[in-house]
Amino acid sequence: MRTKAKTRDTETIKRLTELLIEAAKPNRIIMFGSQARGEADEDSDLDVMVVEEAVSDRVGEMVRLNRLLRSLDIPVDLLVVSAEKFNYWCDTPGNVYFEAATEGEVLYEAA
């Protein structure tokens, strides 16, 4: 039987956000999935979407940012998306962008 885990502590999420802001200069960082909904258990990872103005190599950027987050020693499922793609899909049900937009918690938004 799975038990609910406490939501990742505020300091860890703050540090993750700081690392991503410094490295990616994103438009927005969104935590979504079970952690954002308060349904996480001990096996849950932290689902994070990084919305950047433009992304020429999405997979390369995800690898680069994941390497930076290793120091946090928490399981992170990181997605990187361009602002254009996120804005196009965020209001269409049935995709991860919609889930992040409707159920996610915005950790950072550029002014």
List the helices and strands and how they pair.
Layout (H helix, E strand, L loop, with lengths): L9 H15 L3 E5 L1 H4 L8 E7 L5 H12 L6 E7 H7 L6 H8 L1 E5 L2
Parallel strand pairs: 2-3
Antiparallel strand pairs: 1-2, 1-4
Explained architecture:
The protein has helices at about 10-25, 35, 60-70, 85-90, 95-105; strands spanning about 30, 45-50, 75-80, 105-110. It is of the alpha+beta class. The chain has one domain: Beta Polymerase, domain 2. The chain has a four-stranded mixed sheet with strand order 3-2-1-4, with helices on both faces. Strand 2, helix 3 and strand 3 (about 75-80) form a beta-alpha-beta unit. The longest helix has 15 residues, at about 10-25. Mean pLDDT is about 90; it is low at about 1-5.
Strand order of the largest sheet: 3-2-1-4
Rounded to the nearest angstrom, the distance between the terminal CA atoms is 44 Å
CATH superfamily placement = Beta Polymerase, domain 2
The CATH architecture can be named as: 2-Layer Sandwich
Largest sheet: 4 strands, mixed
Kindly name the structural category: alpha+beta
CATH topology: Beta Polymerase, domain 2
Query: What Rg, in angstroms, do the CA atoms define?
Result: 14 Å
Low-confidence stretches: 1-7
How many structural domains are formed by the residues?
1
Assign a percent range to the helix content. 40-55%
State the order of secondary-structure elements, H for helix, E for strand: HEHEHEHHE
- The overall average pLDDT, rounded, is 92
Approximately what portion of the residues adopt beta-strand conformation?
15-25%
CATH C-level label: Alpha Beta
